Amino acid sequence: MSIFYKSDLIITNDGPPLREGIVELNEDGLIVSVFQDDSFHDFKYVEGVLIPGLVNAHCHLELSHLKGHIPAHTNGMAGFIDQIFSLRANTNDDACREAMIANDKAMYDEGIVAVGDISNSSITIDVKKESGIHYHTFVEVMGMSDALAESRFENGVQLLNRFVENDLSSVSLALHAPYSISKKLIQLVNTYLKSNSPSSIHINESDDELVFCKSKVGPLKEVFEKYKLPVQDFDNLTQETVLIDVVKELTNAAPLILVHNVKTDLAEIEKSNQLNANLYWCLCVQANEYITGQAPDLKIFNSDSLNVVVGTDSLASNTNLSVWEELKIISRLNNQIPFERLIKWATINGAKALQQNNKLGKIKPGYAPGLVQISNINFENPVITFDSFTRRIKI
Ligand SMILES: [Zn+2]
Asked: How many angstroms does the Cα of residue 119 sit away from the middle of ligand 1?
C-alpha cells in the first residue's frame, strides 16, 4: 500500500525544487513516484520543506560519553588531545553504551540516515546492529613510528574483521591524522584499501598540526612527549603542503573524506582535486569552534564544483551530533551559501562519500532516502535560521 506526503516545498536533489509536490512511498520507504497534482487529495500534509535523509559524514559515536568532559577552548588542539588521552584511559563501558544509544536515537529522530563513524574499538558494534541508521565504520589506525606500523595495521584489520563478522560489512580502514601516522603505515593502509574504498583522515585542523608535521616542534610535540609517544621517529612532511603530501600517498582512497580543513586554502583544494577526483571536503564547524575557536574559510567551499560534506565530530568536542545544527552554524558564518547547496552538502554529497548514493540522498523513484521535514522555515524563500528544526517522517 502506498503512502502519499505533500509538502510546501520538496528538495529532491533530482531536478529543481518542487512547490506543493507529492511523494508516493511504499511500506518499506521506497519511493514509487514524485509528482505535482492539485486535484489529488489523498495525502498527509507536511508543513514546511521536505528533504531527503541527512548524512553525518564524520562522527565518533564511541566518544559519546565524553559530552561536557572537556571544556571548550582549552588551550587549542594540543590541549584538547592532552585531555582526550587522559580521559580515554578511564572509559566506563556502561556509561559509554548508554550515551551511544541515546545519541544514535537523537540522530535517527532528527532525520540522519547514514553516518561515517570513526572507531578505535568494537564497542559500537551492538548499537550499530540495532540502529535504523546506516553506519559506515572507518576503523582508525595510527602510530607515528615505522616500527609500530605492522602491528598497528594488523590490529586495525582484526578490528575491521570484527565488524564484518557482526554483519556490519560497510567498514574500511582510515588513518587518524598526518601528525599521528608514519610513512610505512600510510603505505600499508593504502595497499589494503585497493581501489575504490572509502577512507577518511583528519586534516588541516589547526596550526599546531601544521607546525608539528613540518618541523616536529610546538605544543603537539610537548603533548606527545608527555605521553611518551615516539616523536623522534616521526618523519616530517616536507614535500608540498601537509594535505597534498597525504593525498599523494593515499592514492587508493576513493572516496577520501578530508575532515576539518580549517587551514585548507584554495590552491591546495585545486591541486588535491587534480591528484584525486574523489575527494570529499568535510566541515565540522561546531567542533572547530569548540577546540580552537577558528573556522574554515567557507567562501572557498561555496561552489558546486566541490564535494562538500558535513560532520559533527564527537561529543568530546561538540554539544550535539546534529547535522542540522552544523548547517545553522555554517549559515551563520557565511550567509552567501545558497540553501539548496547546503542541503546538498548534508544529503546527497554525504551519501556519495559513503557510497550509498544508489539509494540515499535523492527523492527519486527507486530510492529509499528517508524523508525529513524542516519546520519553522520560510518555504517561499528558505534560509536556515536558528529557529528552524528537522524531524524524521516516520513511515
Ligand atoms: Zn574526528
From this structure: 10
**Ligand 1 mean position, distance from CA 60 (Å):** 6
Task: Kindly give the distance from the C-alpha atom of residue 314 to the centroid of ligand 1, in angstroms, as a whole number.
Answer: 6
Helix H, strand E, coil C: the string for the chain is CCEEEEEEEECCCCCCCEEEEEEEECCCCCEEEEECCCCCCCCEEEEEEEEECEEEEEECHHHHHHCCCCCCCCCHHHHHHHHHHHHHCCCCHHHHHHHHHHHHHHHHHHCEEEEEEEECCCCCHHHHHHCCCEEEEEEEECECCHHHHHHHHHHHHHHHHHHHHCCCCCEEEEECCHHHECHHHHHHHHHHHCCCEEEEEEECCCHHHHHHHHHCCCHHHHHHHHCCCCHHHCCCCCCCCHHHHHHHHCCCEEEEEEEECCCCCHHHHHHHHHHCCCEEEEECHHHHHHHCCCCCCHHHHCCCCCCEEECCECCCCCCCCCHHHHHHHHHHHCCCCCHHHHHHHHCHHHHHHCCCCCCCCCCCCCCCCCEEEEECCCCCCCCCCCCCEEEECCC
Whichever domain contains 206, its CATH number is 3.20.20.140
**231 is in which domain, residue-wise?**
54-360
For the chain, the domain total comes to 2
Q: Say whether both 269 and 247 belong to one domain.
A: yes
CA of 201 to the centre of ligand 1 (A): 8
pLDDT in tens, the chain (395 residues): 999 999 999 999 999 999 999 999 999 999 999 999 999 999 999 999 999 999 999 999 999 999 998 989 877 889 899 888 888 777 788 999 999 999 999 999 999 999 999 999 999 999 999 999 999 999 999 999 999 999 999 999 999 999 999 999 999 999 999 999 999 999 999 999 987 789 999 999 999 999 999 999 999 999 999 999 999 999 988 889 999 999 999 999 999 999 999 999 999 999 999 999 999 999 999 999 999 999 999 999 999 999 999 999 999 999 999 999 999 999 999 999 999 999 999 999 999 999 999 999 999 999 999 999 999 999 999 999 999 999 999 88
Output the CA 195–ligand 1 centroid distance in Å.
Answer: 24
Query: pTM of this prediction?
Result: 0.97
Check which CATH number belongs to the domain holding 13 and give it.
2.30.40.10
Measured in Å, residue 202 CA sits from the centre of ligand 1 at: 6
Residues 303 and 167 in one domain: yes
**Same-domain check for residues 171 and 250:** yes
